[in-house]
Amino acid sequence: MAHLYRVTDGAPLEAGAIVALDGDEARHASSVARLVSGESVALTNGHGLLAQGTVKTSDPKRVTLLVDSVEEIAALVPEVWLVQALAKGDRDERAVEACTELGVDRVIPWQAARSVARWSGEKIEKSVGRWQRIAGEASKQSLRAWVPTIDHMVELPELVKLASRTRMVLLEPTASTPLQHAIPAGDVPVVLVVGPEGGIAPEEREALEQAGAVSASLGPLVLRTSTAGVAALSLINHTLGRFA
Length: 244
What we know:
The protein is an alpha/beta fold. The protein has helices at 23-32, 91-101, 122-141, 156-165, 202-210, 225-240; strands at residues 4-6, 18-22, 40-44, 49-59, 62-72, 80-85, 106-110, 149-150, 167-171, 190-194, 214-216.
């Protein structure tokens, strides 16, 4: 299997440049993948550049590479964003991981009314950082040149504002509209909202619909919050031709 490593932000990822891997990236490359001088690996800056490089030196603290070639991967339009409600256990984290592998462009943690898990104080920053690390690792697993952004946690008022300026789709099992009929066309980001285990509260749904969101169903089966977004994103990708 090919290895993909993310270079430090600001590193000159261009043909002929010498770049370095530090920290966890260097430890993985040197100690886990056991890369040695002369081996070829894939590199990315996480912002659309995908390169091939040759290992020059390998040490657990620092790995240096010569960049052989660089390809710029265009961002997909429209972008697809996931609003993932906080959930108990690791279900929300599993959703972030799988949706990243499926190409989601942005993830927004949502403190929903029925979320059992609660983020507050220092836990907010810590948890957002954990979601970002999960997205980063999942991006490398799927060899993505674009690492999705993990936003700051939002509550309903921020989500209502987002609904007014994007094309928002709420996953709602009781909705009469099938998801495949609710996927909008155009260049404006498609925002998929997945509620917690208890579902999106009626007052939340009403407020979001009044702001322009559309409720849609995946069918008669009720999926967990960890799998609903994955199933919906697969259908959205197919409909928008993102897998073509």
